[in-house]
Amino acid sequence: MAFNALVPTLEVENMDETIAFYESYLDFKCVSREENHWAFIKKDDVEIMLSSRFNKDEFPKTVFTGGLYIYVDDIDVIWQILKDKVDISYPLENFEYGMREFAIYDNNGYRIQFGQELETN
Asked: Which stretches make up the VOC domain (predicted)?
């Protein structure tokens, strides 16, 4: 039995604004959409499903306590592109566990982390 892919699904307040954020700042493309019910966005090997809100009465704000962690191949370039354009969760830093990373918040408040393995000499 194989697991073939993991595609996180994020509930969003405004589908158009969310798609515009991911396309404008992160270079994703919307590859499929059903009006304001759901959308499928993709960049390279990273895929995310966006959906309209469920249980909005019970949970008036979007809730996600974790983050989406995206491995990249040129963290410094991505940092330079994003650092003055988006809400930063934590700045670019080298961590003792061998990663160079930073995190931003998307327009819904979801944390998106970007990481690249530090080169070992």
From this structure: 2-117
Contact 15, 41 (CB under 8 A): no
pLDDT in tens, 3-56: 999 999 999 999 999 999 999 999 999 999 998 899 999 999 999 999 998 878
CATH code, domain carrying 29: 3.10.180.10
What are the Cα distances from residue 84, in Å, to 50, 80, 93?
Answer: 25, 8, 16
User: Which residues are CB-neighbours of 64 under 8 A, at least 6 positions away?
Assistant: 10, 110, 111
Element at 3 (helix H, strand E): none
Six-digit token pair at 52?
């309209």
**Inside any domain, residue 1:** no
